[in-house]
Amino acid sequence: MRTTIGYTAESIGYVIGAQGLVSFASQTLFGTEWGWLHKVVDLPPAASLGIVAVGLALVLVGVKTRNAPARQEAG
């Protein structure tokens, strides 16, 4: 179960981080809106970097959860 939760959090983190990065790059470099993020909420470019940070945090939590040693129950 721990591995499944780790992979799920990591996968969601990759998607969120990628959407934040695409949103930031498209707004700052091209002046347009790309990705799915702008369809949900209208954010300034600086807030898109916050979305990238949230995605990175989820990836790190997922990897740490997946790689954590399993606890043994007292028997």
UniProtKB/TrEMBL annotation:
<feature type="transmembrane region" description="Helical">
    <location>
        <begin position="43"/>
        <end position="63"/>
    </location>
</feature>
<protein>
    <submittedName>
        <fullName>Uncharacterized protein</fullName>
    </submittedName>
</protein>
<keyword id="KW-1133">Transmembrane helix</keyword>
<feature type="transmembrane region" description="Helical">
    <location>
        <begin position="12"/>
        <end position="31"/>
    </location>
</feature>
<keyword id="KW-0472">Membrane</keyword>
<keyword id="KW-0812">Transmembrane</keyword>
